[in-house]
Automatic annotation (TrEMBL):
Descriptive protein name: Two-component system response regulator
Swiss-Prot/TrEMBL keywords: Phosphoprotein
SUPFAM superfamilies: CheY-like
InterPro entries found in the cross-reference section: Bact_response_regulator, CheY-like_superfamily, Sig_transdc_resp-reg_receiver
Organism per entry: Zobellella endophytica
């Protein structure tokens, strides 16, 4: 059975690029435009979340903290996919529970490698 990955980003084109790469690698995807939208769509088994940091309504770090409070998603790995490369932001993301930090622009293979490491078989 295919693993489901949630893509959270306010850029529709970026969500599409990530979704195409993931589907090509055999994953199912759910897309959300910001943290609030993503929380409303977390109702089934999501094996991994890829989230932007800077988004309207609810940013990626706030979203991550909310996800980690939810018993069903406490151990769901999260990859932050962002233009942010400062050490402080990375530290804030890791403290909130991010397992990986991929800086945009990114190579789809680089992201798929991170996904493969974090999605449990």
């Amino acid at each position: 059975m295919a693993k489901t990955i949630m893509i959270v980003d306010d850029s529709a084109s970026l969500r599409q690029v990530v979704s195409i790469a993931l589907k090509g690698a055999g994953y199912d995807t759910i897309e959300a435009c910001d943290g609030r939208d993503a929380l409303s769509k977390l109702n089934g088994k999501v094996h991994l979340i890829i989230s932007d940091v800077n988004m309207p309504n609810m940013d990626g770090i706030s979203f991550l903290k909310e996800v980690k409070r939810h018993p069903g998603y406490k151990f769901t790995p999260v990859i932050m996919l962002t233009t942010e490369s400062q050490a402080e932001k990375k530290a804030e993301g890791q403290a909130a529970g991010a397992k990986a930090w991929v800086v945009k622009p990114f190579q789809p293979q680089q992201m798929l490698a991170a996904v493969a490491k974090l999605v449990m078989p």
